[in-house]
Amino acid sequence: QVLSLPIVVIVHGNQDNNAKATVLWDNAFSEIDRVPFVVAERVPWEKMCDTLNLKFMAEVQTTKGLLKEHYFFLAQKIFNDHSASLEDFQSRSVSWAQFNKEILPGRGFTFWQWFDGVLDLTKRCLKSYWSDRLIIGFISKQYVCKLLSTEPDGTFLLRFSDSEIGGVTIAHVIRGKDGSSQVENIQPFSAKDLSIRSLGDRIRDLGQLRNLYPNTPKDHAFGSHYNSEWVGAE
Q1: Band (41; pLDDT cuts 50, 70, 90)
Q2: Fold category of 41-225 in CATH
Q3: Where in the cell is the protein located (predicted)?
Q4: 49 Cβ partners below 8 Å, 6+ apart?
Q5: Dihedral (C-alpha) 114, 119, 121, 127: value to the nearest 10 degrees?
Q6: pTM of the predicted structure, to 2 decimals
Q7: Are strands 216-217 and 211-212 parallel, antiparallel or unpaired?
Q8: Which of 13, 43, 105, 148 has the highest count of CB atoms within 10 angstroms of its CB?
Q9: Distance between CA 138 and CA 111 in Å, rounded?
Q10: Where are the domains of the chain?
């Protein structure tokens, strides 16, 4: 006899997300010679990082995985801790409850539901942008403000929405005549939005966007992603 990979039987599509979480946790963190259905309740955060990275790359079908700064943001989110350092998180363990039971503070969804939404959006609409490293994605709104506040007017970057499942938003600098700066976040785009008009063309449409952070002109960064019929219409 041989044990199969884990499977979960569901009766409705709304159970799909939880089923995927169960399969992922079981597949990644169970011991080969374990008693069936027995899986660790807590796992090292470093092991979770490896699992999320492999899942992201396999699902999106990209060779560009998650970076150290992405893991730092994800740790802050799953542990709800914005004071710890990257090194502090490396010695922590994460529980199944933190992964897919506890609702994120101020939100209506779990960490996994949010991450799975990012996976789906990237796979369906953002694969080429992610693979070209045009999307920072996993970065907090607070850190974006810190990065962009000293940049020239029109500097922007792309991050995954914290408030919506499966959304990507554009943060950009508006600098007043007095030299003061303000960072604005455009309403997140969903997969449905991006199926109607691509991210590249939306960025092209927005005149207030000039340079992709730190200093790449947007036409240089996104030109290959513009719809050719729109380029020819100029």
Answers
A1: confident
A2: SHC Adaptor Protein (3.30.505)
A3: Cytoplasm; Nucleus
A4: 66, 71, 74
A5: 150
A6: 0.85
A7: antiparallel
A8: 148
A9: 13
A10: 41-225
